[in-house]
């Protein structure tokens, strides 16, 4: 059975504005280019969201609130014809030293097993150095975004990564290079 290429998307700062620890769907604000960018990408890739949500373990948001926000994002994207196959989130703080917090590759490997993903033909897109590092740790090509917190943390980027202004630019780059 043929394996599929995938795009692993960070959530906050990548597909929606980073409004802190989001506990209410009313605080979800999609970037104006998100729908068109994901529409382009899904023609060639399976789409997943992989997000660190340490606000859960910090007691700032509940796990149910994060699940509700994730569900709202997926359902909103679906109304625009975009299918997110799965959303994976890590509820832990860095100090917890868990196996699922990016840059650790746990969720990328899990998605690869569950959905027959070819990691060598896949990309991870996000606005934190941990997103790019997660890609490198898994053999997935990283694309680092300057949107969200990307510009602020660019100097912390220690791995080789394509750098794009935002998800729109990343999607156009990917479509012209595949």
> What is the 3D shape?
globular
The name of the CATH topology is Rossmann fold
Category from helices, strands and their pairing: alpha/beta
What is the count of DSSP helices, taking H or I runs of 4+ residues? 6
The sequence of SSEs as H and E is EHEHEHEHEHEH
What strand line-up does the widest sheet have?
Answer: 3-2-1-4-5-6
Multimer state: single chain
The helicity comes to: 25-40%
Task: Give the arrangement of secondary structure elements.
Layout: E1 6-9, H1 34-42, E2 46-52, H2 63-79, E3 86-90, H3 106-115, E4 123-126, H4 129-138, E5 141-145, H5 150-153, E6 162-164, H6 167-177
Parallel strand pairs: 1-2, 1-4, 2-3, 4-5, 5-6
Helix pairs in contact: 1-6
Description:
This protein has 178 residues and is of the alpha/beta class. It is built from six helices and six strands. It has a six-stranded parallel β-sheet, sandwiched between helices. β5 (141-145), α5 (150-153) and β6 (162-164) form a beta-alpha-beta unit. α1 (34-42) runs parallel beside α6. The mean pLDDT is 97.
